[in-house]
Amino acid sequence: MPELPEVEHVKRGLEPYIIGEKIISVHFSNTVEHSHSEGRQAILKGLELQTFSGKIKGYTITQINRRSKYLLIQLEKEENSAFLLSHLGMSGAWFAVDSIDLITEGKFRNHVHVIFTFESGRLLIYSDIRRFGELRFLEKLEDYPPLIAIGPEPFEEKAQELFLAALSLPKFSRKPVKEVIMNHQVIAGCGNIYATEALFRSGIHPKRKVERMGLAKRIQLFNEIVAVLQEGIDAGGSSISDYRNVNGEAGSMQDRLQMYGRKICPACGSATKQAVIGGRNSHYCSACQR
DNA sequence: TCCGCGCCCCGGCCGC
DNA sequence: TGCGGCCGGGGCGCG
């Protein structure tokens, strides 16, 4: 499941392979074509397939950036600019390869849904086992409002200030803190795995209402969110279930997770608790987290 | 107008 | 061995 560290890793991995490449054609899987012919929008959202292909052809990739869990691939053609927006959902993966056969892992090769062919002959391939991911062609970022609504990037200078301001909003005061920190308008890119870890490291019970947390505790939580996300980036991401980086490699952050998916608390040895909080399955230690 | 709930998209995989 | 049901990120429609 790609969260911020995994998406950051995909961004860094793709960067050297796609910058400067010119897109000359796009191919969709039969599955995607079938979905769109039935009036659904598997993978590609907001445009019909041929419209998307027509619009993106001829653009050169000039930059790739990450915003929360979104990848923003910047495109330029003469004086026009545009973006290819990518969200990996739960099982999306990008591969920059010379041939589809170089995707060695069967479950990724069997679920290839979009193939961009570059003028150089190289391929940029989007694979997505569960098809929760999405691609959009945007003339400008404002055309997709949810992107504009995203809160601070955890590593930006004003992130702590904005995080604390968001936690002070009345609409969050009576909500469980785990639900609030997983809201990307509060802090970008903190999903279930990293929220679980940050709360454990902070000694905060995930059901604790935000209004029941003092300023020092809020700051400690912010610092742990940033630290665990940075650790995730440094470890190459967590390879739980379907995440792979652009070279098809797995990261190692899963080995450093202390509470996510754990049955026993590594700090005190007692059995962990499990509950659904904000619609997400959550593990915590009721002895260590208050 | 804002909020919150439930739905939807889907295949892997768990458990019976 | 077969199969029903659960899981989950995030937008959106509805009440």
Quick summary:
The chain is α+β, with helices and mostly antiparallel strands.
Considering the chains and any ligands shown, give keywords for the structure.
alpha+beta, four-stranded antiparallel beta sheet
Distance between the termini: 27 Å
How many separate helices? 10
Strand order of the largest sheet: 1-6-7-5
What are the segments in which pLDDT stays under 50 over at least 5 consecutive residues? Answer: none
Structural class by secondary-structure content: alpha+beta
**Percent range for helical residues?**
25-40%
Give the averaged pLDDT, no decimals.
90
- The global form is globular
Q: What profile does the largest beta sheet have?
A: 4 strands, antiparallel
Beta fraction: 15-25%
**Chain oligomer state:** single chain
Rg, alpha carbons: 20 Å
Beta strands, count: 10
Describe the structure.
The chain has 290 residues and is α+β, with helices and mostly antiparallel strands. Helix content is 30%, strand content 22%. The strands form three sheets. A four-stranded antiparallel beta sheet has the order 1-6-7-5. Strands 2-3-4-8 form a four-stranded antiparallel beta sheet, covered by helices on one side. The chain has a two-stranded antiparallel ribbon with strand order 9-10. A hairpin with a 2-residue loop joins strand 3 (70-77) and strand 4 (80-87). The longest helix is centred in the last third of the chain and has 20 residues, at 215-234. It is globular. The model has no long low-confidence stretch (mean pLDDT 90). The structure holds a DNA duplex (16 and 15 nucleotides).
